């Protein structure tokens, strides 16, 4: 079985996997980074969102063979102490209900706010539209993104 | 310190003394009304591990408090709100409280289920009494040490104070307190003295959620654990004929390919366990892999042949049969007041409408999964279930094991919405583990989850009302539903008691498609139908919609009846509140408002939807929601539930399209099934009635009314009445956003 060298949260990992294995499952089952969630497996819901070279990406659609050489960040590596402005905003607004989709929501929001620190409501709604929350915590997410934007600008 | 097990213990003394055996660092108060009367003492107290028995509260000698959350957490917030009840009466700082999810413990806890929005309502008194009793014991211990009367001492925020102003912390007297008699006749706080109940309290798991720590069933791991993917029939009505797993078995990550079903069939000969669905009698193929991906990939490589065993049903034929049933006479009458037929015969006018819904999958974000490990010593089950006790009983029956062998640990759930009331996936996991003799986690893919669900049944209502001299004289509700829906108390909801001649009838259409509870079962579509119907009635009667409701509720007030399950005063209260907060009826140019007022799950809710037209197309701009759920225990959690319920209701009323053709579901993932997304959500403005009445649940009640409010607003905006779900498919202009 081929091996792959991955750089995740600034640490180097070597994993053995079929080349078509989605990075999602390598993260969860092999590297034990379970903060990245499985929900649809076809890039429709955003629960598995990670950063690759700073860009929000769906780890269920990214094959492990494509991930070599990328600078990968998962929710576990977003901040050392859970105090990224987006995480702090999520806490301040008490966004989660069941909480399952929220690491994906946070990763999408964090990548978006790196590029746009003063977003309009419409821009936030467009940026977050790819992430499903079955509990429909959407209005709290929108509010939290605004709070985080203020901290990051 | 007492550690001897020779002392004879009453139930109550056990409950405090047993804790001393845990090593003395931590003390547990595990008692009273929230526990079962026959909570048993373990055989050998000296062998007690603190994890071996349950406790609602532990207080360390440092004064830190651990509170066990007994009920399953599905996102409804009980892991936070239920411990708040204990902490309030115990009178400690919330910052000093650490909440731990308790395992299933049928010996000692009551009713560890999540369903029907009942957790807070049922535990309001018992949990507060538990906290208050523990506090009194601490006060008594301090008083004894000081040599003063306990009645001269008070306690607040973890500190006891006597008449001389001397203070002592809970942690300092906790060992002495545990050796005292358990006091009776404990008085509870006056709601005006609450310091924790009613304060905004963040989700106790918030730090773990935002940093991606393991919390959910899918996150659970154990050494040596393998994974299983189950191949089930692609259509309802099919069973396994044969399969070829040669290719799959050659894959390096595949450990084995087996079948299950034999034990489940044997179990069914003794009857279906509670909270399990009608299990298919088919064999299922199970691919066991080293990782989840190995199992999923292996499953795709198995060649299967299925044969038809019973009807392959289609929505088209359901629609016809349900309409035939609605027009027929096979009903069971659920409630009958007066004589609707006579009222209809004597009426000036009879209004009759039919409303139609689709099936709905639950689509919890975390797909069904469960861990099982079956050993000669015990059966260990870990994962997300709303009904852990039923799961344990079903597995005991499945494997022919005594219930004492079954241990269930609960994980936080990535959503429930009713799906995890049913333990079909737990039964599967246990049968797999029993067969392969390895710790295993059964994991459903999204496709498995959506296509082998326990769906909200497709349902149709025919509602007729008679009008005579400008008054409503009769109301006749008929339900025809796949596998049935109507439940005992529902006929006692509004307008029961408000109209002299009132009848509710229902008839099921038997189907092999598995159906069950979906968030706010019984009413999630009924409310849409009735609240749309009342809007039309008001128009027919040429009366103001709000006035129509106020008058009908006045009728109930004049004739109180035990067969009315709602409070007319509280329904009027939320109605008036929503009218005021939303400016309902005061015309704002370009804004079209729809009203809905409903009672279910013991909570009273009124909602107004504001729709605007954007290039001629309706867009839901804002929802105003007024709620009377009694005392609001956690305003933050309550707001989340209220908003979430409204938006969930909008999403499913507008977009959710799920049907069957020849037994095969019409969608299998989010690419073919639309859930509401952020861009489609309106602002939700929530108002809670001020109240000192005991709290009722919020996990469900804001969902049922919203579809009616939206339909009524769209009617005002476009002139089109909506009778069929999803609204999106039935709007004359299909380009609706919102």
Automatic annotation (TrEMBL), chain A:
Q: Name one Pfam family in it.
A: Fer2_2
Q: Which PROSITE patterns match?
A: 2FE2S_FER_1 (PS00197), 2FE2S_FER_2 (PS51085)
Q: Secretion signal: which residues?
A: none
Write out the entry's keywords from A to Z. 2Fe-2S, Iron, Iron-sulfur, Metal-binding, Oxidoreductase
Q: Which domain of life is it from?
A: Bacteria
Kinase found in the keyword field: no
| UniProt domain 2Fe-2S ferredoxin-type: residue ranges | 2-78
Any one Gene Ontology molecular-function term assigned to this protein's record = oxidoreductase activity
Is the keyword Iron assigned to this protein? Answer: yes
The record's SUPFAM superfamilies line, in alphabetical order, gives: 2Fe-2S ferredoxin-like (SSF54292), CO dehydrogenase ISP C-domain like (SSF47741)
Q: Give the protein's recorded name.
A: (2Fe-2S)-binding protein
Q: Which organism is it from?
A: Seonamhaeicola sediminis
Automatic annotation (TrEMBL), chain B:
InterPro entries (UniProt xref): Ald_Oxase/Xan_DH_a/b (IPR000674), AldOxase/xan_DH_MoCoBD1 (IPR008274), AldOxase/xan_DH_MoCoBD2 (IPR046867), AldOxase/xan_DH_Mopterin-bd_sf (IPR037165), N-heterocyclic_Hydroxylase (IPR052516), OxRdtase_Mopterin-bd_su_IorB (IPR012368), TAT_signal (IPR006311)
Q: What protein name is recorded for this chain? A: Xanthine dehydrogenase family protein molybdopterin-binding subunit
Question: Which SUPFAM superfamilies does the UniProt entry name for this protein?
Answer: Molybdenum cofactor-binding domain
Aldehyde oxidase/xanthine dehydrogenase a/b hammerhead domain ranges (all copies): 211-310
Pfam families attached to this UniProt entry = MoCoBD_1, MoCoBD_2
SMART domains membership: Ald_Xan_dh_C
Gene Ontology molecular-function annotations: oxidoreductase activity
């Amino acid at each position: 079985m081929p091996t792959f060298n991955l750089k995740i949260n600034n640490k180097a990992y070597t994993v053995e996997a079929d080349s078509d294995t989605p990075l999602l499952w390598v993260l969860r089952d092999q590297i034990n980074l379970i903060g990245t969630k499985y929900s649809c497996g076809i890039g429709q819901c955003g629960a598995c969102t990670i950063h690759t070279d700073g860009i929000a990406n769906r780890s269920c659609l990214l094959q492990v063979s494509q991930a070599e050489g990328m600078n990968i960040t998962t929710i576990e590596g977003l901040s050392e102490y859970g105090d990224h402005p987006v995480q702090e905003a999520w806490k301040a607004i008490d966004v989660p209900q069941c909480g399952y989709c929220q690491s994906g929501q946070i990763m999408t929001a964090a990548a978006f706010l790196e590029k746009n620190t003063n977003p309009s409501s419409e821009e936030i709604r467009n940026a977050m539209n790819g992430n499903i929350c079955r509990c429909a915590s959407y209005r709290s997410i929108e509010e939290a993104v605004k709070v985080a934007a203020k901290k990051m600008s | 310190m007492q550690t001897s097990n020779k002392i004879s213990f009453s139930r109550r003394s056990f409950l405090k003394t047993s804790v001393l055996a845990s090593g003395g660092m931590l003390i547990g108060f595990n008692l009273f009304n929230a526990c079962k009367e026959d909570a048993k003492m373990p055989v050998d107290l000296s062998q007690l591990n603190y994890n071996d028995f349950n406790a609602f509260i532990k207080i360390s000698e440092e004064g830190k408090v651990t509170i066990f959350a007994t009920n399953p957490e599905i996102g409804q917030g009980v892991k936070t709100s239920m411990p708040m009840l204990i902490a309030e009466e115990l009178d400690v700082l919330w910052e000093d409280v650490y909440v731990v999810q308790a395992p299933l413990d049928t010996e000692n806890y009551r009713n560890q289920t999540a369903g029907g929005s009942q957790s807070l309502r049922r535990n309001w008194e018992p949990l507060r009494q538990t906290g208050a009793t523990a506090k009194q014991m601490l006060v008594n211990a301090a008083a004894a040490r000081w040599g003063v009367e306990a009645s001269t001492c008070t306690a607040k925020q973890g500190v006891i104070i006597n008449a001389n102003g001397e203070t002592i912390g809970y942690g300092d007297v906790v060992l002495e307190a545990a050796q005292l008699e358990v006091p009776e006749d404990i008085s509870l706080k006056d709601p005006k003295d609450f310091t924790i109940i009613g304060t905004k309290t963040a989700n106790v798991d918030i730090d773990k959620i935002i940093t991606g720590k393991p919390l959910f069933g899918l996150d659970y791991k154990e050494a040596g654990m393998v994974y299983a993917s189950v191949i089930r029939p692609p259509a309802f009505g099919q069973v396994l004929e044969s399969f070829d797993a040669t290719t799959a078995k050659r894959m390096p990550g595949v450990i084995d390919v087996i079948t299950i079903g034999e034990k489940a069939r044997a179990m069914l000969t003794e009857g279906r366990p509670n909270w399990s669905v009608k299990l298919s009698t088919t064999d299922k193929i199970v691919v066991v892999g080293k990782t989840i991906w190995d199992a999923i990939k292996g499953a795709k490589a198995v060649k299967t042949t299925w044969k038809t065993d019973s009807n392959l049903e289609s929505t088209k034929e359901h629609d016809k049969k349900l309409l035939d049933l609605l027009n027929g006479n096979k009903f069971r009458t659920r409630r009958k007041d007066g004589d609707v037929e006579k009222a209809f015969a004597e009426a000036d006018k009879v209004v009759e409408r039919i409303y139609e819904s689709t099936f709905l999958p639950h689509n919890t974000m975390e797909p069904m999964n469960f861990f099982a490990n079956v050993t000669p010593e015990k059966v260990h089950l870990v994962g997300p279930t709303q009904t852990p006790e039923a799961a344990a009983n079903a597995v005991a029956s499945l494997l022919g094991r005594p219930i004492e062998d079954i241990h269930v640990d609960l994980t936080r759930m990535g959503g429930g919405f009713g799906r995890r009331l049913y333990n079909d996936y737990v039964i599967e996991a246990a049968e797999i583990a029993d067969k392969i003799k390895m710790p295993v986690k059964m994991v459903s893919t999204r496709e498995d989850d959506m296509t082998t669900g326990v769906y909200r049944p497709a349902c149709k209502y025919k509602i007729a009302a008679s009008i005579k001299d400008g008054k409503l004289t009769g109301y006749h509700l008929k339900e025809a539903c796949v596998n049935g829906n109507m439940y005992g108390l529902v006929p006692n909801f509004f307008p029961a008691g408000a109209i002299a001649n009132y009848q509710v009838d229902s008839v099921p259409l038997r189907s092999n498609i598995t159906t069950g509870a979906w968030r706010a079962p019984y009413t999630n579509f009924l409310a849409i139908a009735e609240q749309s119907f009342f809007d039309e009635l008001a128009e027919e009667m040429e009366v103001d919609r709000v006035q129509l409701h106020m008058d009908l509720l006045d009728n109930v007030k004049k004739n109180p009846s035990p067969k009315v399950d709602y409070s007319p005063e509280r329904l009027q209260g939320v109605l008036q509140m929503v009218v005021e907060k939303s400016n309902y009826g005061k015309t704002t140019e370009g804004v079209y408002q729809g009203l809905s007022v409903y009672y279910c799950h013991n909570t009273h809710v009124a909602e107004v939807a504001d729709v605007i037209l954007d290039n001629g197309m309706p867009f839901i701009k804002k929802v105003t929601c007024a709620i009377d759920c009694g005392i609001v225990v956690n305003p933050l959690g309550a707001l989340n539930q209220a908003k979430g319920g409204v938006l969930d209701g909008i999403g499913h009323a507008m977009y959710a399209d799920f049907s069957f053709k020849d037994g095969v579901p019409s969608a299998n993932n989010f690419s073919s099934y639309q859930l509401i997304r952020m861009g489609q959500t309106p602002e939700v403005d929530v108002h809670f009635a001020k109240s000192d009445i005991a709290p009722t649940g919020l996990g469900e009640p804001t969902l049922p009314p919203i579809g009616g409010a939206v339909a009524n607003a769209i009617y005002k905006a476009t002139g089109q009445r909506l009778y069929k779900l999803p609204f999106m498919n039935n709007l004359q202009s299909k380009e609706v956003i919102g």
